[in-house]
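_Full entry_
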Amino acid sequence: MKKNQESDVGKASGVVWKMWLTMKLLFCFLLIGFSTVYGNAFSQVKISISVNEVSLQEVFEKLTEQTGYHFVYSNEMLQRTGKVSVDMQDCDLGQIMAVCLKNTGLWYRLEDNIIVISPKFRQPDVPQKKITLTGNVKDKEGRPLPGVTILLKGSAVGVVSDVDGNFTLTVPEESGLTLVFSFVGMKTQEVVLSGQQVLHIVMLEDVSQMEEVIVTGYQEVKKEKMTGAVTTISSEKLSDRYTPNLIQNLEARVAGLSTYGGKPIIRGTGTLYGESAPLLVVDGLPVEGSIEDLNPYDIASVNVLKDAAASAIYGARAANGIIVVTTKNARNKGKIDIDFQANITLYENKNVDYHDNFLMNAEEQVERASEYYDYYFNRKYADDPSMTRDKVIENFGKNITDGAQINPVAYAWYQHAAGNIGRSELDNILADLSKNNFAQDFADNIYRRQVMQQYNLSLRGSSDKFRNNLVINYRTDNMGIIEHKSNWLNVYYKGSCDLAKWLVATFSVNGVYANIKQYGNDYNVNLDPFSYAQYQSFYNADGSVKKLYSWYCGNEYMPLQEGMEDLGFNLVDELRDNQTKTRRQEMRYHGDLLFKIIPGLTAQTQFVYEVNSQNVQQHATQESHAARTIKNAYAKMDTESHKLVYMTPETGGFLQTTHTSGNFWTARGQLNYTNTFGKHEISAIAGLEFRETKTSGDKSLVLGYDEQLQSSATHTVDFGTLSQMSNSPYFQMNGSPFPCNQFAFTPYLENGMGIVKEVRHRYGSGYFNATYTYDNKYNIFGSFRKDYADIYGLDAKFRGRPLWSVGIGWNAHNESFLRDLSWMDFLKLRFSYGVTGNIYQGATSHMTASSGDINSTTNLPVASISSPANPDLRWEQNRTTNVGLDYGFMSYRLRGSLDYYVKTGKDIFAPITLDPTTGFSSMVANVASIRNNGIELAIGYDWFVPGNRRGFSWTTNLTVTYNKNKVLEVENPATRAYDLVSLPYKTGYPVNALWAYRFAGIDDRPGLVGQSMYYVENGNTSHNASSASVDVLEFGGQSDPKAIVGMDNQLRWNGLSLGFLLVYYGGHKMFAQPKSEVFESSWDSPLNIVYLNSWTPENHSDVPGIGEYASTSLGSECRTATNCLYDADFLKIRNITIGYDLPEYLTEKVGISKISLRFQINDPKALWIKNNAGIDPETLGIRKQASYMFGVNLSL
């Protein structure tokens, strides 16, 4: 097997030649057959090539197309060789290589199907005392790097590392000599010799070259040829910090991408009703699964496509941008790479301090509640002769026996007023209540420290024809609450096989399995400690957990109605007695065939099939609050026997099951063509794509369920009769029949029966795009796609919508007048314009009807018209103009991009008013338009560049996003202020505008004291502004941040690393901590701390009165009024990461290539919040819990 052709290329150095001969002798007997075939293939393949004055890089690309051999070289090395001309017909590769490399000072070496280009090496001519160096070269992950050039600086003495990354080099025995290690895609590294004879070198990725290829999903495009706005994040960058899912990891890394509130948005909100999240593409095809289900450890790169030139090829789903994820592949032949990661995250205990949560503590609320009940029993009705003090006491006692919600402070004052206890005993009771801290007791019994663990195991290996990847990821989380837990398993296999020289097959299977156990649905039982009065005792006198009573549950002081169950609930027991278990399974199967037809032309077929299934079971035992409510609600007294009869099973609980499933597939056939002739290069693709989505499901309900006996009594229940009952025939609450339909049938029974409607949609598309490049300087790009969907089409002109884009690019750094600027590595100007689309699944061209349950009277199925026909229904359109600049200076030490864009949405779905005679008052149609425009800036700078892997480095990456959003056209039928507050869309304002009632102070007029006032028409004030004209409202800003800034810093030295991410969100507003009117008896849950400054005749504040001075009616205006409108700007350290890579001499002793340790702090205290109330804009209250992650990474 020939490794080097002599000709005029020249022989390798003596040392290298001897090494090569030794290897050849050792392996010739074992591999002679393989070598013969391989060598013959190398020499016998006949090639024709004709190029004139082109770069060596272009020649190698053409040779790769014809032979399948891949070339490894340094761009800088090739740039020094100038242009070459070759015209050879039917020659073998060796002859062509000899001509190409003649007089270049380069030589080549064949390693399997890789041709390594490197300088010709020689040994010094003058005899010197020498030493022999040995060593190996690996990447950051501990994988060997073959083909690395090792050169003695200032000479032509050097070698190339072998397939295992090993090398041997003889150099003069002198101190201070420097070895230079260079490899394509890696940063050149210099090592000064100081007596060592064994070297272990770890090379780092070169940002400039690693970003040269951009994956769009349909094709791979070199950065020089890209005219669109794209940001690429490598796996190395992603690994700088740990997050449980990809979206959190992308925060502040991509200019133009907002993850505010956990919702990814690219370049602003461009729709009102349609999908606003970007499309997710995994390994080339769009997927329906959630981005949170991707394994964060198995991502090789993420490309975010932001403008039309980058994303228009995806057509009707490209309006919101695209996130293209490429999973990792095997890298080393003949070896299995094993990587293992383990992380444990500990969360801070939840802060349940009342003041920190902007709430009164027990002492403060008992004091103010006591002031009120003193007033209630002794002075409130002093001027009403019909309400004597005895009558007040009598009425209050009746409220107790009727089951009204009674708090302990009120009951103590009632006992005192009724003469059952004296003043000193009352004071003692109130003092004891003031010492309670319900939230802390709740936390001690219900909460637990949240612990999340994640483990990842990957095995990757490859041979000449096969490449295999198996990745297993497991995550478990106790969710911070007793009787809660979630488990998540992700198993992914991806393999590829060279079935023939002209055919490559790729296939993958991904399974996601999730199990979640949590508290079941019960509207009366709340797991928020601040839903219960802070002075409420969590324990009984004997130390057992006390029963609690909420709305329509009665109270602890009332006598039980005969035969009825007590509706009090013990929170600890309730978490065991009512549980929901969710089991979710998602499978994704992906296949890909690549046919190499002729040089430059390939055909590709791809298919992805996804199936998901979710099963949700709520099991409430007989002792649960929900089961007891159902039993009470449907009990009736038999008129003859005068005994209670239960219309639902008397024993057992209930089991409610909801099953949903989805089936989705996408098939694509595509032709790929590339050709270079002279200074011209053409790249084009064309294809067809078809897709189908289908979702369906069903529900079931079992009553009288006994899990241990596996028995039920559902067959004894007449659901038709139950559904017709508005009120309970026997059970009384608050002095009236219990509203069983509202509080029993609807929440517990009706929601557990019926079907989940089946929804099926089909789509078809044809597409084409092409890029023309002249002299590696000028790019012209165009794409066209036409989409069809069964959602649209009553009108033929809307059945298919053409979507297209064009772009131009100028690689200024390749111009002759700039080429001599040594500090300029890359400078590209680009412009693009295009049209993309979006779909709203909630609309249809046809009139639709929804089926319901069986009518209890006719026993026939019921259906109702749900939406009118709209023959003009069509895709939303987004027209995007983008101007961008990409740059890299000073050996890419300074790098980044700058973009300005205008994205205008037309035919946006929005509601319109209809003539009532049509049978509908409104419908959603293509009637609105929206504009987003903004600036995106990305800057990366290496403050310090290391001379070797363990040297000091400091890199800063800054991203700046500014987006201005405006509704250009929309019909808003709002005539009242409340309507515009609820549906805030208005022409000339942002999509997510905030409309505020103008606060006018607190009323101090007799009979109206303590109530909030708002400005209405003509400068007047009113307690109720919601029904006033929309003109009374004030535009308060927008809830979406206008500006997002992220600054990521990474410092490394001698194996230690420190990273921290700063994020700034600004230019937006929020409604928070509303100063609401409260009923005078609203003491059953904690009041906001602002009410310590509530209005009284002696204290004319802007806080509504409470107790004696409370409002007689509650308005909703206070929640969206100017006095609760705050700036939402903030600056935070999102995380701080400290890591340590153990030295190789330690890891090798235990047979491990790499061991890394990591500690990370997430969400420490905010550095700065603009509002002076201390409100965290991300929670609208107390700050997010901090968490602490400990992790270890092992590579074998």
